[in-house]
Design goal:
alpha/beta
């Protein structure tokens, strides 16, 4: 019986591996042809998450996108979002499994950006201007998002509308980020704040410690 179970198990694993390979989206597959641009060496792992608005999505060469990652433009399939791309992911990026990137106006992700799993990036959020209308029924507000090349986003980080991260930034796991942060920033917390930064003269340093050590 154990031999039969081992044989069946081996077959199931081999079959699932073959399904994952066949189901991956690349520049050579029919699903890849729906994208505005999908570069050489790109692989979107199977099974994918919700993917729609592909015509407005560009993905640079060599980028790897994990299982169950959702990539979307607009409120739903079939919208006309204009002539230009809305979601742009650079080359040689790695997007962790279960992440969601939801674009409505403009999301730019630079080259060599890595994320942990379950990261959420969006350029749209609901508003609560009218206290008498359910928040989910109030028209949402957009604000472009930019993530600089070489950055790392830890597991479960949330990047909210209007965020602009410079180059080589680190976002701590679970951080909720909104606002502008310069190159070589480390941000953490809810809401996220600058906890470390870098300059050639001083190296990595904490802004808080720098303020404490400043002469009176």
């Amino acid at each position: 019986m154990s031999l039969v179970r081992r044989a069946v198990g081996a077959f199931v694993h081999r079959a699932y591996g073959a399904i994952r390979t066949a189901g991956a989206i690349t520049s050579a597959t029919p699903a890849g042809h729906r994208f505005g641009r999908i570069g050489a060496g790109v692989s979107i792992a199977f099974p994918p998450g919700a993917i729609f608005g592909e015509h407005w999505i560009e993905i640079g060469d060599g980028t790897l996108i994990g299982e169950r990652v959702s990539l979307s433009c607009g409120m739903g399939p079939g919208q006309d979002l204009g002539p230009g791309s809305i979601l742009r992911i650079g080359g040689s990026c790695s997007i962790g499994r279960g992440s969601h990137i939801v674009a409505h106006e403009s999301i730019d992700i630079g080259d060599h950006v890595f994320t942990g799993p379950y990261v959420y990036i969006t350029d749209q959020n609901h508003v609560y201007d009218d206290p008498d209308i359910p928040i989910g029924r109030q028209w949402p507000r957009n604000s472009p998002v930019s993530i600089g090349s070489g950055s790392w986003l830890g597991a479960g980080a949330i990047i909210l509308p209007g965020t602009r991260l410079g180059r080589q930034c680190v976002v701590a796991g679970g951080a909720v980020v909104r606002g502008e942060f310069p190159d070589h920033s480390v941000v953490a917390g809810v809401p996220a704040r600058l906890v470390r930064s870098y300059d050639p003269a001083r190296g990595w340093h904490s802004p808080g410690l720098a303020a404490l050590n400043r002469p009176a």
